[in-house]
Design goal:
transferase, serine/threonine-protein kinase, alpha+beta
Length: 394
């Protein structure tokens, strides 16, 4: 990970979170007024294992580039205070735990189409983590999806999937990064907080470190057994179950009681409000035997997931068109302003020339006022070619 020689400057805003090793606050990049998040991690009192975990997080964040993963921009540090600064994407719509609390407070179930939308976006982010590559584009919902080969690179297991680590943003953030109104039918999912993530050399390897949040922790982790990316699938199932029922699948008052329930794998049926297909997917994810759990590739092959993916692709295409229209409007305004200034300058030059002729003080013009060759360039003006319109829309 390369660190820029000249780091940008930031204006500090309010603190939005705090943990055992530091805090998270909003900042504004002064160069373009972009709102970002700065994770401030104090590493002075960390032991060797914790520092290695911090280094791993930085490495993972710098490699994971995906539309549904919180974007990592760069890092910096303050040697005097032993503080590491991680600059990341700001998600203005909160997280999935806030959405669940909202619907619980409203005494309403989350509409099923919202659940599918959220699930597919999480799956696409996990596919990137588990297979080390992006999904191929769908031309139609009936396209054959070949199962990817075992990754030759690093496979990332998140290991701490929970509603609080699934952040929400929206397309309107591109033009208004301080947007506060949340339309849960249009939210964009951003998987974040890879502080406990684990990189493996290949997908056939297994990890053994005991980490995670108990309510979403897989049985193999609770048993202190080796685990694979399918451990994230269990956590995903628990999250989807909570999104539908508004409570976790395994409830207990003590850790021992919770451990017993998770190992037994019994949970109450989901509300009949939801389709059998959705209920079946969630049940398949929350399987005690990890070999019976579906992979991200298998889940994304479901026809409803394909339909949802295609709808998200169309939304993304529409957003690109709106962005393009926005830029064209700006270019049009620039051209209009440029033409107005040229007319004003030309009229002023002609008026001055006429006055010189009438007063008998005119001199032969070295060059004509307007020539038929080359662009007209006015001093102090930015050439139109610098306008930011040459983007690649896919």
């Amino acid at each position: 990970m390369n660190r820029n020689e000249r780091q940008p400057t930031y204006r500090l805003l309010e603190e939005i979170g705090r943990g055992s090793f530091g805090s998270v606050r909003k900042v504004v990049r002064e160069a373009d007024n972009k709102v970002m998040v700065r994770k401030e991690v104090r590493y002075g009192h960390m032991n060797a294992k914790e520092r290695q975990q911090l280094i791993s997080e930085c490495a993972i964040l710098s490699q994971l580039k995906h539309d549904n993963i919180v974007e990592f921009f760069h890092w910096d540090h303050d040697a005097k205070s032993n503080t590491l600064f991680l600059y990341m994407e700001y998600c203005s719509k909160g997280d999935l735990s806030q959405m669940i609390r909202y619907y619980k407070h409203q005494r309403k179930y989350v509409p099923e189409e919202y659940v599918w939308r959220i699930m597919v976006q999480i799956l696409m982010a996990l596919f990137k983590c588990h297979y080390g590559r992006d999904l191929s584009k769908l031309q139609t919902i009936y396209d054959a999806m070949e199962e990817p080969l075992k990754s030759k690179g690093y496979v990332v297991i998140h290991r701490d999937l929970k509603p609080g680590n699934i952040f929400l943003t929206g397309y309107d953030d591109e033009f208004n990064q301080n947007a506060s109104d949340v339309d849960y039918s249009k939210v964009i999912i951003k998987l974040g907080d890879f502080g406990l993530a684990k990189s493996l050399q290949a997908s056939i390897e297994f990890a053994t470190t005991y980490v995670g949040t108990p309510y979403y922790m897989s049985p193999e982790v609770l048993r202190d057994q080796p685990y694979s990316p399918l451990s994230d699938i269990w956590s995903l199932g628990c999250i989807l179950y909570e999104l539908c029922s508004l409570h976790v699948p395994f409830q207990a008052k003590t850790y021992t009681e919770l451990q017993g329930k998770v190992k037994a794998g019994y949970f109450e049926p989901l509300p009949h409000f939801y389709s059998k297909n959705l209920q079946d997917i969630i049940t398949r994810c929350i399987q005690v035997d990890f070999t019976k759990r579906p992979s991200t590739w298998s889940l994304l092959n479901d026809i409803q997931c394909r339909i949802c993916r295609k709808a998200l692709d169309l939304e993304k295409f529409e957003r690109h068109l709106l962005n393009y229209e926005h830029e064209l409007t700006q270019v049009g305004e620039m051209l209009e302003q440029h033409a107005t200034e040229m007319k004003r300058d030309f009229a002023s030059a002609v008026d001055q020339r006429v006055r010189e002729i009438l007063n008998g003080t005119s001199k032969p013009a070295a060059t004509p006022l307007i020539t038929g060759t080359g662009p007209v360039t006015m001093p102090g003006r930015t050439p139109f070619r610098n306008a930011n319109v040459n983007r690649n829309y896919r």
